[in-house]
Amino acid sequence: MNRDRIETGAPPSFMARETAEVPHVAAPLCAGSGDVARVAGELARRDFPLVVVCGRGSSGHAGVFLRYLIETRLGLPVSASAPSVVTGYARPPRVAGALFVVVSQSGRSPDLVAATEAARDGGALTLALVNDAASPAACASDLVLPIGAGPERAVAATKTVVNSLVASAALAAAWSGDRALAEGLAALPDRLERALGLDWSAWTADLAAAPAAFVTGRGHGLGTVREIALKLAETLRLPALGYSAAELRHGPRASVSAATPVLALRQADPVAEGIDRLAQDLRQDGVRVHACGGPAGTLPWLGDGHPACDPIAMLVPAYRAIEREARRRGLDPDAPAGLTKVTETL
């Protein structure tokens, strides 16, 4: 079957085409580009008291992934920037000596640019992970790491999200000297290619009558969890929430029921047992859980790879299933209602 066409034979959406491009556009970063080595070398020569990550939407989810990579491999505390502190409250942060990382597909949202300029003026070293290396956010930064995903036309970002995560992992591997992560990245293009053939329609079909949906995971998978929840809301117009498996056991658990299917993502690392236990407990309570990874997995998967790389690969079958479900419902995955490709906020 042509991966760029849904079963109806209709022309492929941009979202489908761009998801299919993921293995190809991710390969250079997975191999360790010169830009990655250059930026990592600059960071390795400095000592930072902390790292501040700035991004919204899908780029913010990439920032969550980067946070776990930095904190687990370099031991540096990572904080999320609140751009409105600069643009709304006019209170530039005191970040002298820190590393400030802005993650953005377009690099054009005024609030992200303003936050980056304020961080640089406040004495932080600023780094932009952007798809447009000539964008205002890139121009406002001391260092630029292009993610190299190429043009993306669908409003629902796919390949730019994957490459933002890949660039984050490649940077963390080179900066920290993590050879195992570098080897996991080297194997990732093949896993991304094989992930294109995984069918997660059992999960999306279960969402047909759902008033809401939940996505859960933990650790390195949390950024992916939140990204998939966003795509459900954006593309299927379905209220969806992405929670850490630890957080879901608290207040949010009260709103999870047999009517609200749960997608559980599980990578093989020290937090896996907690995700497995949560899935088991939810099933015992009559909740429909679709799990990827581990012995209790119900969705097609590739088997365990590197635990920081598997959450990247899990995006691919999720994107494909969401795109196909949108088309089945008569929705346009390329142009969700009320949204534009570049969202500019202050």
UniProtKB/TrEMBL annotation:
Q: Identify the keywords attached in UniProt to this record, alphabetized.
A: Aminotransferase, Repeat, Transferase
Domain SIS: from-to ranges: 39-181, 203-346
Give the signal peptide range.
Answer: none
SUPFAM superfamilies for this protein: SIS domain (SSF53697)
Q: Which GO terms describe its molecular function?
A: transaminase activity
Q: Does the keyword Amino-acid biosynthesis apply?
A: no
Put simply, this protein is called Glutamine--fructose-6-phosphate aminotransferase [isomerizing]
Task: State the organism named in the record.
Answer: Methylobacterium isbiliense
